[in-house]
Amino acid sequence: MGRKPYVFALAATLSITLLGISPTASGNEEGTRDPAAPPGAAADAQVLVFHAADAPTDRTQAAVEAIQAIGAEGPAEEQFDVQTTDDPSVFDADGLLAFDAVVFLSADGAVLDAGQESALQSYVQAGGGFLGVHDAANAQPDSSWFTGLIGSRADPDSPGEAQDAVVEVGDRTHPATAGLPLEWERSDVWLNWEENPSGEVHTVARVRESSYAPGGGALGWDHPISWCRDYDGGRSFYTGMGGTAESFGEDEFRAHLRGALLWTGGLTRADCQATITDNYVAERITEPNQPEQLDQIGEPHGLDIADDGRVFYIGRAGEWSGAEVVTDWDNPEIGLGQGTLHVYDPATEGVSLAANLEVFGNKGGGDELTKTEEGLLGIALDPDFADNQWIYLYWMPHDTIDRESRIGERRISRFTFDEASGELDLASEVQVLSWEAQIHSCCHAGGGLDFDSDGNLYIATGDNNSSGFSDGYSGNNPEPSFAGVSFADARRTSGNTNNLNGKILRIHPEADGSYTVPEGNLFTGDEEGGGKTRAEIYVMGVRNPTRLAVDPVTDWLYTGWVGPDAGAPSTTWGPAKYDTFAVITEAGNRGWPYCMGNNQPYRDRNLPDPTVPLDWYDCDNPVNESPHNDGLVELPPVTPNNIWYSPQGGAPDYPRDENGVPSYEAGEQTFLLPWLTGGGQATMSGPLYRYDESVDSDVAWPAYWEGKWFVGDHYDADQPRHAVVMDPDNAGAGGLPVHAESLDDIVPAGQDGIRNLMDWKFAPDGSLYVLDYGRGFFNLTDESALWRITYEGGPATPSPERPAIR
Description:
Layout lengths: L12 H7 L26 E6 L5 H15 L9 E5 L15 E5 L8 H12 L3 E5 L10 H7 L12 E7 L13 E6 L13 E7 L15 E8 L2 E6 L11 H14 L15 E5 L15 E6 L5 E5 L20 E10 L4 E11 L15 E6 L3 H4 L1 E6 L11 E12 L4 E16 L7 E6 L5 E5 L19 E2 L2 E2 L16 E7 L5 E2 L20 E4 L6 E4 L6 E5 L17 E6 L3 E2 L5 E2 L3 E2 L41 E4 L2 E2 L1 E2 L16 E2 L11 E6 L20 E5 L7 E5 L13 E4 L14 E6 L5 E5 L12 E7 L15
Parallel strand pairs: 1-2, 1-3, 3-4, 4-9, 25-29
Antiparallel strand pairs: 5-6, 5-7, 7-8, 8-9, 10-42, 11-12, 12-13, 13-14, 15-16, 16-17, 17-18, 19-20, 20-23, 21-22, 23-24, 23-25, 26-27, 27-28, 28-32, 30-31, 32-33, 34-35, 36-37, 37-38, 38-39, 40-41, 41-42
Helix pairs in contact: 2-5
């Protein structure tokens, strides 16, 4: 490379004889430097590789050769010289300052004395970089400072032999992982940790324990294998990989090491703070309402955020505890509730009540025939809201209900927000779309609204079907009805091509209040001569999708829905309760009430005796033979979903027979997504994060989260609250997530946190707003609140004052 490194006497016996690295004499004039200068500041980039004298010869030699080759790669400003030694006396306070990074390689045990460790500590505090590889986690075992430098310690009960495994690469921006496969298959000796460092360090990659035998010290689904942190004034990167000589010959592992060395050596900047939980601040925005008032919040149900940062959030129907709830159908005020719209302005930190809408939906709890989930369910600001002040609401106006037939009207309305008064102009309502829903029996009204980049409005509607009468399995019982309308057969709704319930609709609102239907929906409306399909349907076969979000970059739709109530699989009727998340890239059928999960079928039933099981549904060729079907009989094939979980765990799967029917034997379940647990569960799909580097914000979540999909559950406890990475090549076809990480300590769960997640969206400034429903159901409690979660981790390192690329 033509460089003259700072040199000093290296007592490097092993290095000389084994690796062919000649010792050099001290006193080189160009290497003389000010001891007070930061590491590497006055010389070309230098890396010191240290290994124990008794280190495994083949692995050490392979590692040093790899690091030397890495140092000679790339543009000149990213190259570095390498000095190698097994002599701990080189850990001298002044001498170490010659190096931009120090690598601990095959350094097992107490390799430094107190003075030498103190020199390393001073070096790091002066801004130096450190890279630990594999069994460096066993070095300096009695030093708490070194434990902090590494991040954790290897568990003695770790596998000792190399095994093939899959590494999940969660950080797509750090130079050590940016170019690696999403799922990186490789062989190594996989270490377990005495304590899981997640949240204390920034994890860039995890090893998937289900892909190998982790032994008695297994950590579970969250098994960090490479991580970094800004530590004690310097930079530290550790990888548990590199336990075999063969590792260092792999191009991808060398790329991993190169990125780590570029950052630790200060040759490039990177963010190693993004997943450290203390860098996030969760603040409750709203106070409890004043007694018998709705001054701060209604029964939380959804939110949207304007370009200027104002948060518009809705309340479904419920009022304060003790407010009158009318459940008598003979009373004209049956189910009368207050649908609310509130506005939070971060500029003033003030909350205002912008509207009260009289809705049908305040009908208490209880069994299927005495409660309702209707009300004010969805909100979306027009894409040109800053100019036209239009707000779209999905609701059931109380004055639309027919108490005799027990039918109400689900409606999409456009209102104008009056900026001068800060209120919704109720007289400005334009009715865009409406359709009927039975209100004799609960449940499933849906509620998600969002726009895509073409100005198309997506509307998530529930299946308008009772959860009872089918033992918690497929909602396909044709018998119960009221006034001739079935309320326990979702083949009437979700499975019906001629019904707008149990669907995701896609329309294009026009300026005059009408709408058109974009090309590419599931039906044209003309199938079989017309009258059998609705052109507004984009996706059929969903159960209760309360949340949806459109990715502004791809226009893909991210959503989820709650499953039925069966607590366990049945060899007679089919799968247990599956709550579901799905990436939807095109129009299709998502299965309910015929199939769930990865196309696991239910059993058909029909008149005259719905208790008698018939054939298994065919997910590839579903047929709607319900007596309540007025749409097509032959339905589109079912697209499998990406994430599903039951009371038993995440993504249950079973052996299948020659017809593709799972065994549904509980003892034969395997769980494809072990990071998910079940029980009481209700999906709350969230946004896909897009980092906007053009926005000047000191609270934005960092670029690390770019492209990650936030999935959660209404309940905290052990339910999912994760950021997941999807493979774009198979996401639309039901591909499983390739990576997941918990958000529980960032979007705080627990008694004093956000216990009942209801909706979450990112603001233009990159902060996250979250609605906490409160406690219980069909009410409004003091815990009901709007929260904001901001990031305070600071910029990438090294700091701009010390140029990253020299």
